[in-house]
Amino acid sequence: MSAPLLEIRDLRVSVRGDEGEARILDFVNLTVARGEAVGVVGESGCGKSTLLKAVLGLLPRGAEVETGVIRFDGEDLLQLRPEDFARRIRGRAVGFVPQDPFQSFNPVFTVGRQMLEILRWTGLPGEPPRTIWTSRERERARAALIEALRAVQLPDPEGALDRYPHQFSGGQRQRILIAGALAARPQLILADEPTTALDVTTQMQILSLLRRLARDFDVGLVFVSHDFGAVAQLCDRVAVMYGGQTVETGPADAVIADPRHPYAAALLACHPDGERPLVGIPGLVSSALAPPPGCRFNPRCVLAVEACRNERPPLRTVAPGRLVACVHAEAS
Ligand SMILES: Nc1ncnc2c1ncn2[C@@H]1O[C@H](COP(=O)(O)OP(=O)(O)OP(=O)(O)O)[C@@H](O)[C@H]1O
Ligand SMILES: [Mg+2]
User: Fold this and answer.
1) What is the C-alpha to C-alpha distance for residues 255 and 39, in angstroms, rounded to an integer?
2) Which helix (H) or strand (E) holds 221?
3) Nearest ligand (C-alpha, residue 61)
4) Of the ligands numbered here, which is closest to the C-alpha atom of 241?
């Protein structure tokens, strides 16, 4: 098997602030192949966005990578200088789709002007960024944008460039943002809850669009979500995070049908599928400032035993392609 496009191994990130030091990522593991969609799920505050920021070289001020590996297309991203992240990775080889299509545009400029500005900053596909474009380069950029808008199935792509953000619906704006990420021809797209601001039907359309684009363009996709149902529809594999740790990874259908980590099982039980009664998870995500020793989920886990309080269980293989960090997880 060829090397994964993105490989994150045992990543630990801490933030130093006024109240002390918080380890916000603690042994995170994730791999993404070309053309593969991987869902990252977990409750609010478990470190999903921080993980994406680490890949984009945008960790918050005061945050520090303690140990671990982030390898992208064979390159060690943790060795990159900030200017290389800006020049080659962020917005170029790695595209980003933000959460909120309503907040992501400036209302006073046309969509075309804003998208061209991004493309000038990221550079035309295969070319370095330019401060000033020649008229020919500008024409090529416009053509690349129209092509990307066509790929996301926005009606009248040429006309769209001359319109203002308020003239589009939320779903259309999200399509435009995805086109913006696609226009620089990235190898990997990171989407951080790209549909939470949209209604359910539009959500499904955007998700299937992302899925199709990842396949058509052979792009890896990391899809962050609270929603197991959306992940089930969209993703090949899933990584479940809790309290900054990866607690379970595996094929999405296998994990959803038969979660092996008690947190993954509890999270799934919160998801309405119309068949099972809804169950909440008692307690709150522990503070990253004072995490419990051992498995971070142990204070909320019905199966917790002494060993869970003493030692962090490592991710172990329990079935082909399935890893679980729980002392109770048996190999099958
Ligand atoms: N700049 C920062 N300084 C200190 N702590 C931070 C900072 N950014 C994030 N954190 C902490 O890191 C943890 C993970 O935050 P993150 O935003 O990655 O979670 P998330 O899983 O994306 O949550 P949500 O689902 O709400 O978006 C949280 O405990 C948060 O308080
Ligand atoms: Mg987030």
Assistant:
1) 11
2) strand 220-225
3) 1
4) 1
CA distance 177 to 22: 33
pTM of the complete model:
0.91
Eight-state DSSP code of residue 279: -
Distance CA 158, CA 161 (A): 6
Q: Is 15 in the pocket of ligand 1 (CB under 6 A)?
A: yes
Residue 286: CB within 6 Å of ligand 1? no
Q: Coil, strand, or helix at residue 72? A: strand
Q: Which residues pair with 38 in a beta bridge?
A: 222, 237
Strand 245-251's sheet: what is its strand order? Answer: 94-97, 188-192, 220-225, 37-41, 237-242, 245-251, 322-324, 316-319
Beta strands across the sheet bearing 20-32:
20-32, 6-17, 63-72, 75-76
pLDDT digits (tens, 9 = 90+) for 64-107: 999 999 999 999 999 999 888 888 899 889 999 988 888 889 99
DSSP 237-256: EEEEEETTEEEEEEEHHHHH
Q: What is the DSSP letter of 324?
A: E
Please work out whether the CB of residue 45 comes within 6 Å of at least one atom of ligand 1. yes
